[in-house]
Amino acid sequence: xxxxxGKLRWKQQLPEWLYEPLKLxxxxxxxxxxxxxxxxxxxxxxxxxxxARRLAQARHRTELTRDIQQLRGQVDAFRDRVxxxxxxxxxxxxxxxxxRSLPLKLLALDSAAPQAVAPYRAVVLRINLExxxxxxxxxxxxxxxxxxxxxxxxxxxxxxxxxxxxxxMQLTVLGMMS
Length: 178
Hints:
Shape: rod-shaped
Order of helices and strands: HHHEEHEE
Number of strands: 4
Strand content: 25-35%
Strand order of the largest sheet: 1-2-4-3
């Protein structure tokens, strides 16, 4: 019976609360908030979450597109430096042309089978040269600045055998080809 008496008091006090403006405003604001939450926010919450997820995916795709465009630009910058119709013998002749342009003594030039390097194939050349420091430096500059794409994998410089005062340089060079 105590519970019923409490319910009856609450029902009896409700009209008295509605006559007080402050309590009426609080009740109306609470009801408006509750109705807004139930009628507007809850149905739109899934839509908002889905839209936020799709927006994040679109931003990620945009970043990937920018990265791909940047990488394509970098590839285009080097495309003319990677010959398409070349073989190991052609690369050997090209390097021999560079050696002949300088006063260097070619001790050995060996080539190995092409290796896979990322999206390209690479001709492996082992070059053994003898000359003074300036000429060896000039050859390294030629490798760095010619119109082909080379990568120097190993360099070893030591005094040459004999009393000439020259240096001996052993190089392992990769020549990129498509």
